[in-house]
Design goal:
Elements lengths: L5 H15 L3 E5 L2 H12 L3 E7 L7 E6 L13 E3 L8 E2 L13 E6 L2 E4 H7 L3 E7 L1
Antiparallel strand pairs: 1-3, 2-3, 4-8, 5-8, 6-7, 6-8
Length: 134
Amino acid sequence: MMVTDPISDFLTRIRNAQKAGHTTVMIPASNIKKAITEILYDQGYILKYKFDDKAGKQGEIHIAIKYDRQSKTPVIKELGRISKPGLRQYVRSNEIPKVANGLGIAIISTSAGLMTDKKARSLNIGGELLCYVY
C-alpha cells in the first residue's frame, strides 16, 4: 500500500492504538520513523520499541505504548503533524514554538538530523517542524 505521508501514517497508527487500548502497535519501518521512535523513547512517551528488519521488504517497528499506572490513560495526550507534504513548515532557531508551554516536544528535521525543539534551540539550529507530542 502506497502512503503519501508516512509520518502522518506513523502518528495515526500510534493514536489509533492508544484509543483502542492496545499495548503494542506495528508500523512499517523507514529511517525517519526509526529516528522519531527513538526520540519518543528517549523523551519517555513510549515504553519500549524494537526494530525488526527481517519482516517484509522494509522491516517493521514494534512499539509498546506507555500508559499511566493509576489512571490507565496513555502518556501521549496529543500527537499531531505540523509540516505536511502540501505545505512544509520551516522555522529558524529563534522561531521554534514551545509545545504546551514547554511540557511537550516538537520534533524538528535539521541539517544535523532529527531532534527535539529544546535541543535545536540549544544548538541554535532551525529546520522543518515535523510534529508535536505532549
